[in-house]
DNA sequence: CGTACTTTTGAATCGCATCAAATCTGGTGG
DNA sequence: CCACCAGATTTGATGCGATTCAAAAGTACG
């Protein structure tokens, strides 16, 4: 995990954070296996994942590894804002670009800057919305149902851009990539779906 | 949907809301089929579900009904705090006790009362945490895996109270109740789990 | 004591995971 | 430019686990 020079903040953060907090952010490039924090440590920084993947995990009652969150884009463990210490480990599972925001200044800014607090709340609301959709999606039984639900909720008027290939979509849907490929093929044959120019479209 | 006299607020709300907002809350008893709000309407009140079930839904691209959220306990559509109008319908699917908080005063309180804003943020963080766990849980393949994950994350030191019977647990896990009954029986036989006194316990 | 709901067990079926293998792709280095 | 490799895509075959349909037994409650 190495700090780099300061490339520009991602737009999402640029628009969210108040001006005086932005210079306090630091950039990190991390590689597979790095740990952003570990159990019981005191939160010092809030991490934002710009690319790659970070997993939150802890050991279960039976000593097994338990995944709590998988972040590919967005904040890691927002709740660390109020926690005295972490309840899990954060492990980098795919080389990631990260932005770290110092916690205490962040908390101060939220208390003293109502407009920022409202933006922060709006951000959390969006995140909640997304997660609720994902829960509903994952509780659908068929692969086709999940895929269509994804396109209808994450897509734009029935069109979903495929940034990272169907395989990563399969992971997001919680199905094997084979099943997804077959389902897409089947839906295309049924004229329900069309795959072209890096996007899926409902007909 | 009828307004009632004012029973005490649920503790969760009592502790969350500032004193001057609490009297503005109203109570509703709603029955199956009632609608809390509908598409394109302007949000006037924020709803909190104390019991029963409310579903957020909208019609999909193909005219099919699309479930966005299922609330049995907690706020409905927190994002309405910032939205100019609803993007879905809220339908009562099981007779519910509701508390309604007027939106504008709520928004004002968040802007003017930093301590309240921080409590609100903490509440959203908790909700995010819960939902992330649920997503991870739903992406597990086996019924046993999901059940153990539930007990390890929602339970207290390997013990999960069964408030509403195993059947509702099955719904939460996204599996048929038959499958869950069988799995519990199997895990008991394997001495992994014990079911007694209205709770499940990992051995 | 009857009605509604949960719990439980059984049997048949089906969809998806899994394992395997072939093809295709973009990117790298010789 | 080509050989080569890693990863994505695709198709096939097999088996398991969960759904589904059915039905019986248990339980709460008016």
What key attributes describe this structure?
3-stranded antiparallel β-sheet, globular, 203 residues, alpha+beta, 2 domains, 7-stranded antiparallel β-sheet, Arc Repressor Mutant, subunit A, homodimer
Characterization of the model:
The structure is a homodimer of 203-residue chains. The mean pLDDT of chain A is 88. The radius of gyration of chain A is 19 Å and the shape is globular. Chain A has 203 residues and is of the alpha+beta class. In chain A, strands 1, 2, 3, 4, 5, 6 and 7 form a seven-stranded antiparallel sheet that branches. Chain A has a three-stranded antiparallel sheet with strand order 8-10-9. The longest helix of chain A has 25 residues. Chain A folds into two domains: 112 residues, Jelly Rolls, CATH 2.60.120; 63 residues, Winged helix-like DNA-binding domain superfamily/Winged helix DNA-binding domain (Arc Repressor Mutant, subunit A, Orthogonal Bundle). Chain A is 37% helix and 30% strand. Chain A is built from six helices and ten strands. In chain A, a hairpin with a 2-residue loop joins strand 9 and strand 10. In chain A, helix 2 crosses helix 3. Chain A binds a DNA duplex (30 and 30 nucleotides) through helix 5 and helix 6.
